[in-house]
Amino acid sequence: MTSTAIAIIGGGISGLSAAWTLQKRGIPYLLLEASPTPGGVIRTEAKDGFLLEGGPDSMLAQKPEGIALCRELGLGDRLIPTNPELRAVYILHRRKLHPLPEGMMLAVPTKILPFARSGLFSWPGKLRMGLDLVRPGRRENGDESIASFLRRRFGQEAVERLGEPLLAGIHAGDPERLSILATFPRFRDLEAKHGSLVRGMLAAPRPKPKPGAPSPAAFYSLRGGLRELVEALVGRLEPASVRTAAVVRSLARGADGYMIGLEGGETVGAGGVIVAAPGPKIAPVLEGLVPEVAQTLAAVPFASSATVLLGYRREDVAHPLDGYGMVVPQTEGLRTTALSFVSTKFAHRAPEGHVLLRGFLGGVRDGAVLGLSDDEMAETVRRDMTPVLGLKGEPVLTRVFRWPGGTPQLEVGHLDRMRALENAVARVPGLHLTGAGIWSTGIPDSVADATRVAEVAAEEAA
Questions:
Q1: pLDDT value at position 148?
Q2: What is the model's pLDDT at position 140?
Q3: How far apart are CA 191 and CA 185, in angstroms?
Q4: Cα–Cα nearest to 253, from 423, 422, 431
Q5: How many other CB atoms are found less than 10 A from the CB of residue 277?
Q6: Planar angle of CA 64, 67, 72, nearest 5 degrees
Q7: Fold of the domain built from segment(s) 2-38+227-300+410-461
Q8: CATH superfamily of the 302-408 domain
Q9: Rounded to whole angstroms, how far apart are CA atoms 152 and 170?
C-alpha cells in the first residue's frame, strides 16, 4: 500500500496548485488525477499554425494570483496581454454588431456621450439606466440573482442586452438564477458604499499608465497557450508524486488517517486529504464519510458546453475583426452564445494571412447542444456567424472541444451553502475541499483558494 502525508484528489489547476504549495513546504503528497493527463479544463493544442484553446484562454489581471504563479514558475517572459489597440467587445442586437460604449465597465456606463450615442439601447432604456444615479441602494444584505440586481439598478433592457449575454454568459448560466454575491460581489459593494453603481465606478481609483505607455491589459495569456502553465507546474512537481489515470472510488477515515480506494483495487493511505475534483463527480466518494457534504456538492449544478474553433483565410472574413469578440443575447434566437476573435485578441494564434474564431455553444440555455456531432456544431457556428461577419466558403480548420458538466453554476444562496459545507468539513480532521464550484471558478481564484487550503493542510501535517 502506498502512503503519503497528504493525498490530493484531482489534477486540474486547483490540485496542481495545492501540490506545488505542499512541495514548497516540504510536505509529502500524492496527487491522484482520474484522466490520462493533468490540467482539467485547460486544454491547448497546436495545429497547422493555429494555437487552439479548448477551455479558458486567459487570466484576469485584476486578480493577480494566476499571473503571479506564472512568474514564480519562470514564465514571466512568456506572458502576453490582450491586444492593447483593438479592444472592442460587441453585442449582437437585431443581427447587427454594436460595440460596448466607451467607458462601459461590464454593465456600468461611466461616460455620458458614448453611452448616449450607442445604438445598443433604446432611449427609454438609456433613461432607465440613468436612474441608477438617483435610486436608493438596497438595504437588505441577502443574496439575489444577477437579473434581479441589474433590473433594480438599470432595468429590464440591461438584463437582456448585458446581464444575460455578458455577465451570465461568462458562467454559461441563467441570470435569473446566478448569484450576484458569488459572481460579481463588487457590484453589491459599490451599491452599498455609493448607492449608485455609476457613482461607485467613477469614484474607483484607476491605474494611470506612464506617458506613452499602453493602458494595462485586462487579461493575459501565455505565448504558447495556457497549457504552458500546466506543463510548468507538472515539470516542477516530483514525478513520483503525480499519478494520472488514478480513479478514486472510495474514501474512508480510520484511527491512522485516510484510506483511499482506487479503481483496480489499489489502496492509498494518507494523513490528510485535499479534494480538488468537481463536486458532482466526487460526491459519491464522499457519501459514506461526510454525507451532508456529499449532498451539498452533488446539488451544485454544472452546465455543459462546447467550444468550436474555426480557422479562416483572412480574405474569407469580411468583418474587420477589430476587437476581442461578441456576445449574443438569447433574444437573437441563435445557438451560438458568444464568439471570440482569437487572432485579434492575442498574438501568435493564427498563421500569416489567416484568422481564428472561437464560438461557444450550450450552457444552461441549450444543454442539448452536446447531442450534435462535431461537424454539426461547427456548421451551427458557421451558419450563425456567416451573415454577421460576412464569412465565405469553408473554414480551413475546425476543432470542437466538448465540456459535459464543465461549468459550475453559482446560484443564489451559493455562498451560504458553501459556508455551511465548510463548517461540516471542519468537523472532520484532515479533510479539505477546494476547486471549481466551491469558492472559485476562474484560474486566479482557483489558484488562490487551492493555495490557501494547501497551506492549512501543510500546517496540520507539519
A1: 97
A2: 83
A3: 10
A4: 431
A5: 29
A6: 115
A7: FAD/NAD(P)-binding domain (3.50.50)
A8: Protoporphyrinogen oxidase, mitochondrial; domain 2 (3.90.660.20)
A9: 21
CA–CA gap between residue 61 and residue 79 (Å, rounded):
11
Domain boundaries, the chain: 2-38+227-300+410-461, 99-203, 302-408
Residues 98, 118 contacting (CB under 8 angstroms): yes
pLDDT of residue 306: 97
Distance CA 304, CA 172 (A): 8
Pairing of strands 29-32, 2-9: parallel
- The CATH homologous superfamily for domain 99-203 is protoporphyrinogen ix oxidase, domain 3 (1.10.3110.10)
Residue 326 C-alpha from the chain's centroid: 17
Q: The C-alpha cell of 332 is what?
A: 437573437
CA dihedral 228, 234, 235, 240 (to 10 degrees): -170
The span from the CA of 220 to the CA of 56, in Å, is 11
- Determine the Cα–Cα distance for residues 284 and 251; give it in Å rounded to an integer: 10
The per-residue pLDDT for 440 is 78
Instruction: Give me 75's grid cell.
Output: 514564465
Q: Which residue type sits at 267?
A: T
Supply the pLDDT for residue 399: 98
Residue 77: partners with Cβ closer than 8 Å, 6 or more residues away: none
For cell 494547501, the residue is 454
The span from the CA of 330 to the CA of 164, in Å, is 8
**Which segments in the chain show pLDDT lower than 70?**
206-215
454: DSSP letter: H
Radius of gyration of the chain (CA): 23
User: Following DSSP, what letter does each residue of 46-98 receive, concatenated?
Assistant: EETTEEEESS---EETTSTHHHHHHHHTT-GGGEEEPPSS--EEEEEETTEEE
Q: Quick one: pLDDT at residue 441?
A: 83
Given the DSSP bridges, would you call strands 29-32 and 431-433 parallel, antiparallel or unpaired?
Answer: unpaired
Which pLDDT belongs to residue 392? 95
What is residue 117's three-state secondary structure?
Answer: helix
Cα 134 to Cα 153: distance, rounded to the nearest angstrom: 10
